[in-house]
Each structure stands twice: as C-alpha cells, then as structure tokens.
Amino acid sequence: MEHAEFNNDLVEFLNASPTPWHAVATMKRRLDAAGFKALDEKEDWDLEAGQGYYVIRNGSSIVAFRSGRRDVAEAGIRMVGAHTDSPCLKVKPNPELRRKGFFQVGVEVYGGVLLNPWFDRDLSLAGRVSYVDESGHMKDALVDFRKPIAYIPSLAIHLDREANSNRTVNPQTDLPPVLMQVPEDDTTRFTDLLTQQLAQQQPGLSIRKILGYELGFYDAQPASIVGLRGDFIASARLDNLLSCFIGLEALIKSSGDEPALLVCNDHEEVGSMSAEGAQGPFLSAVLDRWCGKSRARAIARSLMISADNAHGIHPNYLDRHDENHGPLLNQGPVIKVNHNQRYATNSRSAALYRHISDELDLPYQTFVVRSDMGCGSTIGPLTAGNLGVTTLDIGVPQFGMHSIREMAGTRDGVTLFRVLREFMQRKEML
C-alpha cells in the first residue's frame, strides 16, 4: 500500500470515528466488506478453519480474528492490541446550565485531557443514546451532530493579565461549552436536542423517551495532511485510533494462513477496568471459546503486539527526552521499553519486531523515558498479565498526545502496517 493511499484511507477512518462506538461501527463495516463474519457472545459459535470473525462488546470494544488454516494450539496466535477511546469532555447526566441567556452543558473530564487546547475550538458532539421506542422496547442509537454546535470561549487577556504565565483550568467552572442563546423563560432540555438530532439523522426513528446517553465533545475540524511537503497528519484521536486502523488493515490484508487476532479495547484512558476494557474478561472469553482446552498451549506459542502511540521528540522541548532515546517523526515505529513494566516489551519480543523490520528493510526506533520522569502505560502489561502472553509495546511517534488535536508523521503508520501484516501471516514467531 502506498503512503498516499494509506493516509487518505486513514483520514476517512478518523473522520468517521468521533467516539469509541463510531470507531467500532466503522471497523465493523470494513470487516463485513472483507468477508469477516459476526459472532454473538449470547449464541453458540461454530468456527471454521480459514475464516475471519469478529465479536463486539458494549458497542465500543471489538475482537476480530482469522482462525487460520493450522491448528491454533500448534500455530499460536499473532495478536495485536489497541484501544478505541481517547481523552475528551463527556456530557453529564443532568447537564443543562442557563446563564445570562446562554445555554451551556456541564461536562466531565474523561481521561488525562490536555485541557487548554479545548478553548476556542469548533466543537461537535457524538456518542450513544439509549431510549424507549413507541412500542416500549429499549434500543440504542448512535448520534453525531457532525457540524460545529458548541464552543468554549477563552477569557480575554484584558481580564486575566497572567493568562500567559499562570493560567489554570478549573474543569467544573471553566469548561462548560456554549451551545446557543435562549430566552429567560427557556425550558429546553438537553434530551430534547438529542431527540431532534436523532430524528434528523435517522428519519422514522421512533423515540418515546431518552433514558440515557454517553456523549463526548470532539474537534469538528476534520483530519488533514499538513506540512509544506505533506510530512504530517493532524487529527483528533490519533491516540489511539491510528493504531486501531493500522491493526485492522494488517489483519484484513494478511494472508489468513495463520491464526491472527486484533483486539481494540475501550476505557484504556481511565485504567481499563471494565467489562470491555483490557483489565476485563473480554479477550480472555473470546480465546476460551476459540481455543477451548488448547488455550494454554496456544498462548504459550503466541505473541501480543500492543500498539499505542509514542512520544516523538519535540524540537522545542528536547530536554524532555533521554538523549539516546528521542524518537523522530517519520523515522519508524517506536519500540517502547520500561523495565518497571509500564511497558511489556522484553528482549525476545523486541527482537522479533526488529527481525521482521530488518527483513522488510523498514526502520524502527526505541523509546525509554527519562529516569527522572514518570512513565505512561498501555494495555500491553495488562494483557500480558491477564493472559500470560509474551508481549511487545510499540507505537507510532506523535506530538501533542492527549490534546484535542494531535500530529504524527505520514510515513510511520504505513511502516507499522507493513510489519504487522507480515507478523500476522508469519509462520514462525519466537
């Protein structure tokens, strides 16, 4: 796949996936088009050799796999893991705020959000809505306003002379977005706005009452290729939809000869402890039903690659990196190492990635956090601990992690795709 084709497809994927639910729905469409079959956790499974399958939990996490043409206990499983969620501002259950004729909504900070970039941006809103239809049945629907509907205005520097030197953000009082102006006697409920949007988005949808929702604001500016020579991609949610897209493309475009799996979990940004998170039982349950009594043998022959973006060395903040481990954008994916097990990489898992990259003549880099700084983590150590599977942590280098808009190189994603595709169809692993 050429860089331009890959990145154009990536932009389309990112723009279609403003929330974990939309990301999984987008992945489902691509898997369906590639001939993968949907599985239901409530039903029996009858798996065939050489077939692709996927199973979805909560609408926000997905496991897709190719059963392969060899026995899974003898072949092992080539696994790739990523996460569907990104830090954002989520709407509270009773969100309506009316101040001086402005209609605002209260928001809760989800994950480790870099808050300042959320000011003065065109914001839209998307997520999942649960409702009762006119027949009394509970149903879910995805909603996406698509256009800019909200704004969080900054306080002018004239009213805050220390804004450039000492401004802090109070999430409770500073972040409620402005949606519209209303008269003093306005009684509009937020659920009224949701009902109207769903009616526009899905004509004929029968809604008696909205019972709940999980909605997040997002940057309404689409993903784009930027830079004088098109060296970069700028978008919301690169962490970690970029890895979801790469893993999905690698699975779909692999040969299918070997057992291979992609898991994209929700809730990584808040610790992964949920029914569909990496600390939950989702992946383990799928493996039990796929491998049966042979699971332990299959895991012993398997390897997991946890794909989650890495911190590229910022040209304005060179001192924030170890001098020998500052990954550069467009110089290859980054093998992430932390001997305190914040990353699950060991010498054997890293060696396999380097070996495949060398065979394909593709670049790679290594990241170790400064010894005087804390280190983030991924689903890698959680999955390794839950399954007992040898694991590698790797990621595309990026800038602005956890900002409303992030930046990565246009060459690193396709490089990681090529290595993961080869990994997923490789007969010998460790």
From TrEMBL:
A Pfam family name for this chain? Peptidase_M18
Kindly list the biological process annotations in GO that this record carries.
Answer: proteolysis
**Cross-referenced CDD domains:** M18_DAP (cd05658)
Note whether Zinc occurs among the keywords.
Answer: yes
Q: Name one GO cellular component term.
A: cytoplasm
Protein's UniProt keywords contain Hydrolase: yes
Molecular function GO terms recorded:
aminopeptidase activity; metallopeptidase activity; zinc ion binding
Q: Which UniProt keywords apply?
A: Aminopeptidase, Hydrolase, Metal-binding, Metalloprotease, Protease, Zinc
Q: Which SUPFAM superfamilies match?
A: Aminopeptidase/glucanase lid domain, Zn-dependent exopeptidases
Q: What is its EC number?
A: 3.4.11.-
The family note in this entry says: Belongs to the peptidase M18 family.
- Put simply, this protein is called M18 family aminopeptidase
Q: Name its species.
A: Marinobacter vulgaris
